[in-house]
Amino acid sequence: MSRFRLALIAHDQKKAAMVAWAERHRANLARCQLFATGTTGSRIKDRCPELDITLMKSGPLGGDQQIGALIAEERLDGLVFFVDPLSPHPHDVDVKALTRLALVYDLPMACNPSTADLVVAGFEARRRTA
């Protein structure tokens, strides 16, 4: 069975939560092919060096669009995007486009740790039954 392909993105105020989430799920994430926007991925790699993460550009510099391209090319199985709903985002148009692509392609998308736990649990359940 091929590895699950998962993208990880977090707004600035949610990066610490993303790193903590990745640490809790490091064993499961080690079985995934991971992609992440630049700063988020770098912070995860600092705390979980055993994870193989393909780093894209920073979100505002095109990383969100690079992840969007992976979705459009059907090269992802899931998206974990910890969104900060309380802060303005100068690249909000890119964020909306990324969310729209996940919806159009029926890609599992988690926007908070609770839902991300369920996405990873679903991947693990599928892996065990394959």
UniProtKB/TrEMBL annotation:
Provide the protein name: Methylglyoxal synthase
What Pfam families does the annotation carry?
A: MGS
Lineage of origin: Bacteria, Pseudomonadati, Pseudomonadota, Alphaproteobacteria, Hyphomicrobiales
Supply the alphabetized keyword list.
Lyase
Annotated Gene Ontology cellular components are: cytosol
Q: Which GO terms describe its molecular function?
A: methylglyoxal synthase activity
- The family this protein is said to belong to: Belongs to the methylglyoxal synthase family.
Record's NCBIfam families? Answer: MGSA, PRK05234.1
Q: Which organism is it from?
A: Alsobacter soli
Positions of the MGS-like domain: 1-130
Gene that encodes the chain: mgsA
Which GO BP terms apply? methylglyoxal biosynthetic process
EC number from the UniProt entry: 4.2.3.3
Catalytic activity reads:
dihydroxyacetone phosphate = methylglyoxal + phosphate
Functional note: Catalyzes the formation of methylglyoxal from dihydroxyacetone phosphate.
Domain of life from the UniProt record: Bacteria
Where do the catalytic residues lie?
64
Q: Where does substrate bind?
A: 11, 15, 37-40, 58-59, 91
InterPro entries, alphabetized: Methylgl_synth, Methylglyoxal_synth_AS, MGS-like_dom, MGS-like_dom_sf
